[in-house]
Design brief:
266 residues, Pnp Oxidase, Chain A, 6-stranded antiparallel β-barrel, 30% strand, globular, Split_barrel_FMN-bd (chains A, B), Pyridox_Oxase-rel (chains A, B), Flavin-nucleotide-binding protein (chains A, B)
């Protein structure tokens, strides 16, 4: 335990609504980013295009200089992409510290069904990071990041595939490294929350069902490809699926009870 | 059937990578947006802040002028937010057509585990919209959109809650209406795809398990709140959960087989 590192609060990342749900802890924010299968990365293409752009990308937090760093320590965000994509071209040409990006990850853990539409909500975890993106040019760092990203989708998968990538594969892949400037997270858990005036209105409470519907991601049974020659699904895959399904389900169900006195947990 | 409406291809929304997976059909794009529980909305706060911002928001496609319009017809995107949030202030003050935003929705339908890290992928559906956001000022349209958004989370929920919203609820809620300028979608389905050189390498194929792990969202058993007085979970909730779970699971499993000859479907 000891110290808890937090991101500095700037205008850009300070949460103003439902402040009690906000977190600036590196550990909490990085773990939301890492538990998301897809990250949404936004950047500004610039004039004449008035619109920001969003790309769904695969990525993960890591430190090449200190590979053993924990999730609660300063980390970079590594994103995987294709060499000629627009974000890569912009990041390559960007002046100064790199291309300014915003990285977002969100997941829904439950539907909060309360007495009024206004008090409806989700249980959720969301996080954003702001930072400057640059393509990784060091070959060793690039290979290290490619392995990190592959294993972030399925632990140990890298060593169970045909590696290392050949020259064509290395040159068609670009890894963006995002130097993180700030970040914030928001977590909503618990049950229904209604106003007294509605809770005291029998006409309403006798008619409106209130509660939580837990929501989580489920990995189904692996389907071998017609060309697969390995008999049986390897243990590192089956155990990942079993662990994730249990973890995701437990999180969604446990989140419902947060904040309730023990005797009222349901 | 008849005509299929498509968004115009501009620089900002034209897909350059894996073009065969791209779609510009309004129906396909709007249905990806509407099937997402969370939309990621980006906007540029502007100087001195160099970073674009991303907000997770709840929203849905709709047409106030033609409420019976189908998903494959021109629609606006309605987003739900809090009155004093930054995006609402920017949208209120925006000149011209409104605040330029990008709206993104993505979902993962399966992990594609192939012979090399480079050929790994997801089955997924993603969509983006570009448009101009303005707060809805017409009270009738605002109330209509609030009902539409609530029912997009859980069909029929609006009429099963305490409605209409009171004055305080109406004024604390802002609905953003996004006039869509263009959009695009990307859909990846099917199985593993590897290069011949790896498929012909017995050392690799004898060692590497290949296949697809379907992924989908699962709604769990509803948990009544300690204060709930309605006995039993209402049918409109249980049937929604059953339908969605079946639909989501079927999509993820069926996606694996897309493109396979019937005799090879697995």
């Amino acid at each position: 335990m000891g110290r808890t590192l937090t991101y500095p609060k700037r205008d850009a990342n300070t949460v103003n609504r439902y402040k009690h749900r906000a977190t600036y802890d590196l550990g909490a924010i990085h773990s939301i980013i890492n538990s998301s299968q897809v990250l949404h990365v936004s950047f500004s293409p610039g004039p004449p295009d008035p619109f920001p752009a969003i790309l769904p990308m695969i990525g993960t937090m890591g430190s090449f200089d200190y590979p053993s760093a924990g999730l609660d320590e300063p980390l970079d965000c590594y994103l995987h992409g294709y060499v000629s994509s627009r974000i890569m071209n912009l990041a390559r040409k960007a002046e100064g510290d790199g291309l300014p990006v915003c990285i977002a990850a969100s997941r829904v853990d439950g539907l909060i069904l309360s007495l009024t539409p206004n008090s409806h909500s989700y249980n959720y975890r969301s996080a954003i990071l702001h930072g400057y993106a640059r393509p990784v040019t060091d070959e060793a760092e690039k290979l290290w990041a490619m392995k990190l990203i592959t294993n972030s989708v399925l632990p140990d998968r890298w060593d169970h595939t045909r590696v290392p990538p050949d020259n064509a594969e290395m040159s068609s892949t670009v890894i963006l490294k995002v130097k993180v400037v700030d970040g914030s997270g928001k977590i909503r858990d618990g049950g229904v929350s209604d106003e007294r005036k509605d809770k005291n209105n029998n006409d309403v409470t006798n008619r409106v069902w209130t509660g939580v519907v837990p929501v989580h991601e489920l990995f189904g049974d692996p389907v071998p490809s017609p060309e697969n020659k390995v008999s049986g699904v390897p243990e590192y895959i089956t155990s990942f699926i079993a662990d994730m399904n249990k973890h995701n389900r437990d999180y969604a169900v446990t989140a419902v009870n947060v904040g309730l006195p023990v005797e009222e947990q349901y």
